[in-house]
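P.,

For your records, the input lines for the assembly:
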Amino acid sequence: MPKYAYYPGCAVHASARDYAVSAQLVCQALGIELQEIKDWTCCGASSAHPTSHLLGLSLAARNLRLAEEMGLTLTSPCPACTSRLAGARHELRDPAALAEVNDILGKDFGNTVGVEHLLQVLSKGDRALPVKRPLGGLKVAPYYGCLIVRPQKVLGFDHEENPQSLDRLLSAVGAEVVPWGFKTECCGAGMPMARKDMVHKLSGRILAAARSAGAEAVAVACPLCHSNLDMHQGDMKPNPKMPVLYFTQLMGLALGFSAKELLLDTHFTDALALLRGKGLA
Amino acid sequence: MARIGVFICHCGSNIAGVVDIPKVMAAAKELPLVTYVDDPMYTCSETGQAAVREAIVKHGLTRVVVSACSPRMHEVTFRKALAQAGLNPYLLEMANIREQCAWVHGDDKAAATEKAIQLIAMAVAKVARHEPLTPKSVGVTKRALVIGGGIAGIQAALDLGNANIEVVLVEREPTIGGRMAQLDKTFPTLDCSSCILTPRMVEVSQHPKIRLLTYSEVKSVSGFVGNFEVEILQRARKVDMDKCTSCGICWQKCPEKVSSEFDSGMGKRSAIYIPFAQAVPSKPVIDLTHCRYIKFQEWQAAPEATRGKKPMECRICERLCPPQAVDWGQQDQVLKEKFGAIIVATGFQTFDYSVYGEYGGGKLPDVITGLQLERMLSASGPTGGVVQRPSDGAHPKTVVFLSCVGSRDDKVGRPYCSNVCCMYMAKQSILLKEHDPQVQSYVFYIDTRATGKGYEEFSRRAQEEAGTVYLRGRVSKIYQEGKKLVVMGEDSLMGRPVEIAADLVVLATGVEPAAGATELAQKLNIGYDTYGFLMEAHPKLRPVETQTDGIFVAGMAVGPKDVPAAVAHGSAAAVKAVGILSQEKLTTDPGTALVDAAKCVSCFLCEEVCPFNAVERETLRDKRVVARINESLCKGCGLCVSCCRPGAINLKGSTNQQLMAELMALKL
Amino acid sequence: MSVNAVVPAPGTPFVKRVEGLSGQKVLKCIQCGKCSAGCPAAFAMDFTPRQVMRALQLGLPSDELLGASTIWVCLFCQTCSVRCPMELDIAGVMEALRLVAIEDKHPAAQKNIALFHRLFLWGIARTGRLHEFGLGGMFNVRSRQPFLNVSHLPKMLFSRRLPVLPPWPWSKGAGEVRRIFRRVQAAQKASRGSHA
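Structure tokens returned:
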């Protein structure tokens, strides 16, 4: 049974609880054990890293060290956390930087731990999915966001410009994946407080692109993307009214979990009507 | 009676898709003297040619019309087919029903068919009056003339010499080497220019097959391919080259110092001089406009009333020369030589930037040209490799380069790209940094054109390693402020005006044909463009040939080129010349003009109009002088035919009678 | 002298500092503009990413870049970096510029973005984890936009997606994070001291 050191990250732990719950359910169904890192703390993303380099590295390294102690590969459902943790691991290959960070931590961290996003974990190999309720041709635009595959030399996962792992997963559970050009465009990231206008503009064009590609829903793999695309739709003019679901929620539906179990009723933009129409909820 | 066969080609669907072939065949069968008509799918294919050959034999054809494409395309092909079938190859006529009919009348098939029928009727009328013709052959003078001793000419001369062909290399300057000899280093490898050039120059001077004529110019050219006659003016050096030992005493002791052309005015030379230390031949010349003794002689010769103060008689060189090589009596000489082929490699000069008033118009001392900087960078140059400001000799720390000075500029009549400036600016900025790491260079550019092998990488090296700052924009003005030159430009990438206080400004002056190139082209009867660059016969497929057989062009004389391209061009021209000089005899097209002496009224208008100097005067037994066409020179252009008032001249294969017959066959 | 003419000054100490922090050599940039063309935030920038690189190449006064909105508006999505034909990490250069601006206490052109990051860190430094409710509340107060995003509150609270209580500040992790903050501050003070 594959086992991972699970790092939810602050957002998934709280506002993206639906992501956390659906991720756990899907992993259970697939026989993947997510063992949460005890006492994890902020990875350093968003604010620490672009404020102080050393601070960003140290905050990330603290969590990496905890996973290293567990002797497991670290996985996170949050691309920002994954990117920051993997980025730190990449930078700490420099022995001088590692020594400096170890000084700060006051611990002996060896920088030997692997870091993978949950999508990478779930799309590994040719895992047979015990699909109980195929998604019946639900037209989904797979939205990866910017950080899940970037930069390639740090993450080494999928493809920077035209990633395929989410496409394959969604197809495997019976969704019809629509081809479109906004797979890795940025949604506005952490700007909803300081520059709401930017989020509206960037997320708005992503949703419009999904609509014109013929999608009925957008699948995401990032709590920030979900918040920007789902929660802020109501403030966009015109309201795109495009359901936005975590890929784990879509998988969960196909694996037989109910919409309620998957917390699909907590979204701002209603997804239930669409799912009911398809006989999925 | 002629028995004419007509072959109407389908050319796949090229012709058959537009022209109604059965209808044309039916019409062709009705034409007088036509005894056989066929319609091969592709007449030029081996099957098609075989059909022509077989029909000639089987049906006893004596004339052939191939109604297909342009004669430019396949006349030679079908002439060969006729010859293989035992027929004189000139008993062929082609009717062009593809380019001049099917391709241009696709929108009106009926009219195209009618036009094809008429074109064939004309060809039939003409071919019936064809006479068998035989090409003439002339001998070949197995010697080549190379005009211009720069790198392209040197390469051509060496390649010819190594092919065992006798070469005369004519150079206007006292030494060979050309512009490349002035360069310090060459891009993108930064190998020293003279280190790679000098061995080639020496090789020329020592080559048993090459005769070097420096300080010489081509005076006149006559003759034709295989047999040119050239007059070469060898100017008097006033130094006996056999006696001179190149000891150097004369040019060291000569008291008259003048600005050195070789150093682009950055250094001095004496009145008796060799242009540079490695000159080939390393024998000095006396510059007659500056020599004090010559001035003294002029003073002596002038009428007493007009002459001023008596100048010094000087003659120091003559007195000090150990082998007594100075020869005041030496005169210019005209040599007459015969050649089978000529290669013109007269090279380039740099644009005179004084027309740019906004760049100081040549009045700001610290605004120099790329070639001038090149001389300063050279370790063997006038400053020993130390870069100095001409105004005060100070070593510049901030150097600004301006690209496209006299290039890509309609206003000064130079809209073309000079090809080499981008790279030499990159090179010079790298060298400046190598000479002194404290130098900061700036390059104002419009585009960086780095298309050669390793060039883009070299250009990046200038920017990334030498730290040269490239600013996209054209400088508007340069003005002096104290000891600095203020360069006003724009960084069009940032969209902001930029000003740099420079110690030295280097203008990347563009290239233009060497002075006198067009006059020489006229003597050679070859073409040149509006800028004076020599014209190739075809810019892509015949890049070293000219419209005059036996004359080839190479190097910068044809257009802007870097050293590798000029060398390749020189070699290419040499190979083309070998193509002629390796023949024992040259055959000439028999379609030449022919004078009927009985009708000639000796007006010689034909002589005046002939572009190929093919009209000669012949004295008949009755002492009458009439025109005669030299068949080797005649290109069959027909100018003489149309201007001949008594109608005494005819073009073989296109006689007046044939043209009339063609016209009469046309039904309007 | 032209009005506002730029006097190029390549390789100023400021440029060297940015190059040192980012590990990027600005002269490598060929100004092709691929970064700006693909930048999702370019519409909100005063200098496009290409212009930032150009300004560094020319050595424009540091105030221009440190006072630019660009360095705050950049989303660090890495699009520029992964597409750069010269393999320059342009997002890394943006990050370096922001670090310099923070270190030098240069007034931020985007006050609210700077505020967001300060508050974010303030919270992390205390509890080790992000407290979204707290951050949002403080941001609204400090940026004087009391009603920003409050329309989302009822649903978030109702669906238990926005914990009102902050993470337990006396956890082992929070304590370690506080120590990391202290040590990093000390280390940076020491290194600044040694530079001076």
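Two observations worth noting. The CA atoms of residues 81 and 89 of chain C lie 5 Å apart. Chain C touches chain B through 22 residues (CB under 8 Å).

Regards
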